[in-house]
Write a structure and sequence with these properties.
heterodimer; A: 342 residues; alpha/beta; Rossmann fold; eight-stranded mixed beta sheet; four-stranded antiparallel beta sheet; 12 strands; 23% strand; globular; B: 321 residues; binds adenosine-5'-triphosphate; binds adenosine-5'-diphosphate; binds iron/sulfur cluster; binds magnesium ion
Chain lengths: 342, 321
Amino acid sequence: MWERGRPVSTLESDLALKKSQGKSILEVRNVKKYFPIMGGILRRTVGHVKAVDDVSFSLPEGETIGLVGESGCGKSTLGRLIMRINDPTAGSILMNGRDITRVKGGQLRKLRHDFQMVFQDPYSSLNPRMSVGSLIAEPLIVNRRGSRSDIQSEVVRLLEIVGLSPEARLRFPHEFSGGQRQRIAIARALALRPKLIVADEAVSALDVSIQAQVLNLLADLRKEFGLSYVFISHNLAVVKHVSDRVAVMYLGRLVELAPKRQLYNSPLHPYTQALLSAAPEPKRHANRERIVLVGDVPSPAKPPSGCAFHTRCPKVMDVCRSERPVLKEYAPGQFTACHLYT
Amino acid sequence: MAEPLLKVRNLKTYFISKEAQVKAVDGVDFDVAPGKVLGIVGESGSGKSMTSLSLMRLVPGPQGRIVEGEVTFEGTDLLKLTERQMSDVRGNRMGMIFQEPMTALNPVLKIGEQIGEVLIRHRRVSKAEAKKQSIGLLRSVGFPRAEQIVDEYPHQLSGGMRQRAMIAMAMACQPKLLIADEPTTALDVTIQAQVLDLMRSLKNKNGTAIILITHDLGVIAEMADDVVVMYGGQVVESATADAVFDDPLHPYTTALMESIPVIDQDRERLASIPGTVPSAANFPSGCRFAPRCAMAQESCHQRMPELRELKPGHYVRCDLV
Ligand SMILES: Nc1ncnc2c1ncn2[C@@H]1O[C@H](COP(=O)(O)OP(=O)(O)OP(=O)(O)O)[C@@H](O)[C@H]1O
Ligand SMILES: Nc1ncnc2c1ncn2[C@@H]1O[C@H](COP(=O)(O)OP(=O)(O)O)[C@@H](O)[C@H]1O
Ligand code: SF4
Ligand code: SF4
Ligand SMILES: [Mg+2]
Ligand SMILES: [Mg+2]
């Protein structure tokens, strides 16, 4: 039974969740990523950027977890840790129950067929000298997925899926606008039919009609192949649309994690509340109370003491400056780290 | 409406090469009223950025060329100015900010030097005076540590800070018009809220008109007084923001409104617009939206509709509404 304010670790509750909903494709356990800061003439480590600081959650197969938070809060770092592009400083990552934290080399490359990332920046992920057709065909050719003509028709199908015309395969990335380039990157990621996609701001650069197609497509792929997503986006409406649960990060830590309805209808953490109130809605004269936070996100190299949000929190109390709040479950399935509720 | 600050008429910007003629901007008309925000919304490739670059005469050459049209700003046709006269307008009476400020900021110059350069170029102030004014400008865009920021380099700032520094630079000479191409697209919502707040207050304080280009209808709803909807290098609908949101007339605008997720509604499946944006190298001959339009009739594929004034101030490029 759930009790108000009982400190339950995310892990504990997620394990329970996992039991009730089948096996999880992804488990993130107390993961930390500290980047060293070099300084002085001897280039010695003088401190650490705590990009991800003790994050745990699990993702049941076929589910989507949304990840939101401000620039620099560690979303992409967490995404890269999950993809094993970077090694965590501490903690472990499990895929399908298997600890992959230390898998390397050829085995890792194999794993990557199942786990694909769609990046924030389509410029850096597309080789400018390759035609769009070759870019999308490349993973298929490297992994010997069919004959030349099979691959050609698959390329056309993938282009169609992402809303580009078949002629696009003869052109080069620079001939496309930003949104069009992002669609090419998505087509490439989909080529090997992965099981988990870490989508880092993947639809943010897309225009709405195409965004709707891609979101519908992601939903279809999810139903059809049981795909799971870690969906990173700054667009709260999009995150709400695609996610089952949503995790809110601030300075490397989870500040709230809840089923989406609870998170959007009754957010507990003041940061979540501010985020939601700042999201522009496509309506004239939407009468909402807007909480405009002052200041920037503090540097994760020097996170504020106590609650890291205390420098911007409209509800800050004395205790917030000295004591760090722990993530606890305050409503069924809804976790938050805030002294207001203790 | 008062005499517009900027009048764009029949603007055409093409990329011409041996293989193709890309009609990036193909006969665009709109007005910007003094002190008002004009929102331009449209899908990628619809010609928004090329329109804004054309207004600044920064179309990437040699293939890209403004082939026709008038851009009348404060009574002068900018397209008739010499390059030298134009560079007196740019950054002075007309400022511009981009989606990715890193591409517009010089990575090896301190923030203060970059803002100072604009002031020295257009206002002929001394170096010391330029630095003093730069600090003031940075403070006005919400940097409490402005004295230190002037001596920092772009890479030392976060995305939101860089965008605010860009705004400070664009506002240095108190332009009459600020062109902002996707200024908050790369920013997080709380920082976006700050930047939009900042743009709104600069508009109210200095009477700066703004052309706000974005694909985000939420940002448009919040900021714009007037709206232009672009599709395939053309304007398909233009009206006041209230009219566009409460009474959209063009089938494309209506479809656009229905295809976005909205926080306070649960939409099981989004109503997506089928097909793809037509290539600017190869537009369909009739209505450019016809291949994707749910209302399309045979005639739509034959004849290109004109932009018609269906209600006072409400222009629509569709023959069937
Ligand atoms: N390779 C690295 N070396 C040092 N610091 C890093 C490195 N990668 C990321 N960081 C730092 O870690 C923190 C988290 O960065 P991350 O890219 O994960 O943020 P994010 O939430 O994805 O932000 P955005 O929304 O801007 O994409 C930032 O302070 C960043 O500067
Ligand atoms: N350098 C270029 N060469 C050829 N075509 C281009 C170039 N830049 C843009 N285009 C084309 O011009 C059209 C309009 O582009 P753009 O104004 O950037 O669109 P938007 O800003 O609305 O996304 C698109 O079809 C695009 O492919
Ligand atoms: S712990 Fe304190 S400072 Fe942190 S979010 Fe809660 S009320 Fe605000
Ligand atoms: S002219 Fe025809 S095809 Fe074009 S928008 Fe109107 S109804 Fe649709
Ligand atoms: Mg990121
Ligand atoms: Mg653009």
